[in-house]
Amino acid sequence: EVQLVESGGGLVQPGGSLRLSCASSGFTFSRSAMSWVRQAPGKGLEWVSSINSGGSFTNYIDSVKGRFSISRDNAKNTLYLQMNSLKPEDTAVYYCAQGWGSSYYRASWGQGTQVTVSS
Question: Which of 85, 89, 88, 81 is nearest to 112 (CA)?
């Protein structure tokens, strides 16, 4: 059974930073492209960033370029999202998923990790 468990969210002031983690199991993590996806209050899922299986290629939605950085540790089956210079519009529940870009997929979305950017 595929399991993806996010952590690291919280309440942060504008301009602050957070590092999200996604612990993975139940599939061969090192062979899977991975993505971060978010859902703001009252809105649908929005793709944020992807990384290929080896970690050498990344992609970001324009609104987070230069502020967010996706990475992975295949030895630990863990995906990360370093978020800097956070803005109120980054407030959302963040999820990790398998796949690249708009082709991300996840059998069930679970609770994710809440990121709230507010003064």
Answer: 81
Question: Residues, the chain, total?
Answer: 119
Q: In angstroms, rounded to a whole number, what is the distance separating the alpha carbons of residues 36 and 23?
A: 13
**What CA–CA distance (Å, rounded) separates 63 from 61?**
6
Q: What is the pLDDT of residue 107?
A: 83
DSSP β-ladder status, 68-73 and 78-83: antiparallel
CB 114 within 8 A of CB 9: yes
Q: Which residues lie closer than 8 Å to 77 by C-beta, 6 or more apart?
A: 23, 24, 25, 29, 30
Where the chain has pLDDT below 50, the residues are none
CB atoms closer than 10 angstroms to residue 73: 13
Dmax (CA) of the chain = 40
